[in-house]
Amino acid sequence: MWMLERGTSFSGNVETHQLAACPDTYGRGDRWKWSVSAVVGDATTWFPLGADQDSFTCDLLDIDVAQRSALAVAYDPAFVSVEVRIAEKNEQLEVLRKGGSEVVVIPLFGEALVVAPNGVWKRWLTSGDTFVIEGEDDETLFVTPSPELTRVIVIQISPTTEQALRWVP
Amino acid sequence: MYVLNTWYVTAWSHEVTTTPVKRMVCEIPLVLYRNKAGLVRILEDRCPHRGYPLSAGQTNDDTIECGYHGFTFDGEGTCTRVPAQSTIPERAVVRSFPFVEKDGWIWVWTGDKDLADESQIPDTHYMNDPGWAANTHSYLFECRADLIHDNLLDLTHESFIHTSTVGDDYIYKHGITVEVEGTVVSADRLMPNVAPPPLYAKTMGLDGLFDRFHCTEFHVPNYHILHSGITGAGRPREEGYLIKVLNGITPINANTSWYYYCFARNFAIDDVAATADLQEGLATVLDEDADALRLQEIGLSTRPNTMHDVLIAQDAGVAKARRIMKQLLDAEAQVRDTAVPATSH
């Protein structure tokens, strides 16, 4: 299963907001496991309070702006581990998603093509879009940044305790 | 709470004549009628004099006369006659509603008139296109509109609720892909190399295995179009037997909804017997949904507030649509909260 949520380009005025999370909706009784956010200012202020967590941040923009903005990945290491890869222009990433793990793809700027290996589907992503892929079977994806100025972040999230991590919408 | 700045399907064109018709949309009582020129009029169904429903009165060309004391209003809601006196009271005004009549549906705008934008009416030409054959139904569902939205976005229920018609065991075994753009949520499922559903197989005159697909496209907050069909294995969808199911979902109140339904197909379009069979079969489908959602509404009405749905990955479209709905509701509430109250005496 995958979900593509079209967003607003990061190249404009970035506002702090959640891009993807598991659970994707808070306050419904599901235990928090991870979240990915666009953050203006101090990234740590956006992380869920009270949860044990590790985090990763990278600059959201490579241009000089008045206030620093970042892409922030926070996760509870008791449940998941996170591996982050960044693809620049013309650099194709082969992403093996093991069954029971999740992958989040976000172009920070520019465009990227995400393609299923059997060609069943493909989608162009642009800055601000969020693509979440999950499922119980292994699959290999190809993420190809466009030749123009592009940077794409690929976040692989794997379970540390349970057999399978399923995305909770 | 309802999203009001939007268009809701409120009647079929053929239902509205010079005889007043009453409807309730988002707890707003409405009266609909046509003037002699055939133009639809939609007013609040409540005479300002004493609150009597105008729908219990009668029309005379463009005007409607209250059946209680004869106050008369034109199509814009302006009072034109008070039988007991020659002066029209300043407050003798009935709210009128923008409307659009298109392809057999009459849409009403329930919010701020200044925001009414006809371009927001979705493409419903399948109901009125000679290249498509249409079956239609209207249903009163005894549930909140949200449950119908969830039902349409999560079609795995077909495997359990609609076993004799459009359901098959394989549906829930295939995952979905979800795309969200603006206020439109699309949940798509491709089911390769499967048998056609029982209800359609006969009409299609098919036997064997095909690629089946359905994609629910929810235009939050009120309209779904289901792009469905079957095609040859590995073949493009547009080559296949195509079905477009148009669903206008209109809240009546917190636990009752109107369901305006059109099933359009691009095959066997002149087959009268097929249309008759589908009319009966689709009524069964809607009966099954109506029964299920009535029971769900009862279950939810007694559920403690501390209990929440246990959503799974297949519910991604449901969850996203709920969030967009909440954003729309919050935005309208914010505007209402910041509005300066009118002075009254």
Task: Give a short synopsis of this structure.
With 169 residues, chain A is an all-beta fold. Chain A is 0% helix and 49% strand. Chain A has a five-stranded antiparallel sheet, with no helix packed on it. In chain A, strands 2-3-5-4 form a four-stranded antiparallel sheet, with no helix packed on it.
Protein architecture, described:
- The complex is a heterodimer of chains A (169) and B (345).
- Chain A is mostly beta strands and 169 residues long.
- Chain A has one domain: Jelly Rolls.
- Chain A is 0% helix and 49% strand.
- The model of chain A has no long low-confidence stretch (mean pLDDT 85).
- The longest helix of chain B is centred in the last third of the chain and has 30 residues, at 272-301.
- In chain B, the strands form four sheets. A seven-stranded antiparallel β-sheet of chain B has the order 11-17-16-15-14-13-12, with helices on one face. A four-stranded antiparallel β-sheet of chain B has the order 5-6-7-8, with no helix packed on it. In chain B, strands 1-10-9 form a three-stranded antiparallel β-sheet, with no helix packed on it.
- In chain B, a hairpin with a 2-residue loop joins β9 (99-102) and β10 (105-109).
- Chain B has 345 residues and is an alpha+beta fold.
- At the A-B interface, β1 of A face β12 and α5 of B.
- β1 (2-5) of chain A pairs parallel with β12 of chain B.
